[in-house]
Amino acid sequence: MWSLQLRMWLLLTILFGFIYAVIVVIGKAFLHVGDFSFYLIISLILMFIQYMIGPKIVEWTMQVKYLKKQDNPRLFQMVESLAMRANIPVPKIGIAQIEIPNAFAFGRSIGDGRVCVTRGILNLLSDEELKAVLGHELTHLKNRDVLTITLLSVIPMIMYRIAWQFLFYGRRRDGREGGNTVLIGLAAFVFYFITNLLVLYASRIREYFADRGSIALGNQPSALASSLYKLVYGSARMSPEALKESEGLKAFFVNDPSQARNEIRELSQLDLDRSGTIDPSELLLLKNKNIRLGLGGKLMELLSTHPNMLKRIKKLSEYKN
């Protein structure tokens, strides 16, 4: 866990540097302010605003509706049991009003944790599979990577908006400083690309830790593998319009729905008996296979919020029940 936290805080430090750089460029070009403390204060204010509004942005985008225990006793019992095993407070539990089968966790801290499932997942997974997915999400809270990914995910959105504003609108309003606005827009676009890669990297490494954490909470590796297989299959059946509903926040999900159509071809080969699940014997067969990604696969993984699914399930095959 310390390895994960160290990487996350390092990424957050780099992120702060990007925010500071953009503010300095804009400040010098338009406000003509050169004082270091001014930029530091503005950067800290922006980070605080992200900290405060990040969970609200997730709630609004995912259309989250929080539940009471009587609304779904089965779901509450699973979360409460897993939270007790993880030795963390029971998070708020909600349902996202979207059809993509998935689950996610977010919040400012462990005490502010929220775990949500989508409408599409509730009737897709068995109890054991759903518990494995919830264990994965609670591990995100326990590992304290949720706040970092919340902050990281907001930055590319801000950079993209700044780039769009300065590249396409800033020059029209002020022809005298048109050159400056274009340069700032281009710089913001470069920062958008770099910060987006940082978010993708952070998201990928935390998934491996969360998978391992779910097994440590008593869930079977085959149950988590089967749930991932079913989530990929369920997402592959969704329309492109439905997948776009959560495109900006897919880093929070258990798997990347946008990659489902590519992943289902590989994963279906693991389901030897065509049962729709990956049982322990099928998982054991994968353990002895050597998986190597080609250049295309490596590039696709580099630009994805989640690890290659076949590599990820192979990693599950190495864990003991």
Describe the structure.
With 321 residues, the chain is mainly alpha-helical. The protein is built from twelve helices and four strands, in the order ααβαβββααααααααα. It has a four-stranded mixed β-sheet with strand order 1-2-4-3. Helix 1 runs antiparallel to helix 6 (178-216) and helix 5 (146-173) packs antiparallel against helix 6 (178-216). The radius of gyration is 21 Å and the shape is globular. The two termini are 20 Å apart.
Low-pLDDT residue intervals, each spanning 5 or more residues: none
Q: Tell me what portion of residues adopts beta-strand conformation.
A: 5-15%
The secondary-structure element order is: HHEHEEEHHHHHHHHH
From the spread of the alpha carbons, the general shape counts as: globular
Number of helices: 12
Terminal CA distance: 20 Å
Oligomer kind? single chain
The total strand number stands at 4
Major sheet summary line: 4 strands, mixed
Strands in their spatial order, largest beta sheet: 1-2-4-3
Name the structural class: mainly alpha
* DSSP helix fraction: 55-70%
Radius of gyration: 21 Å
Average pLDDT confidence is: 82
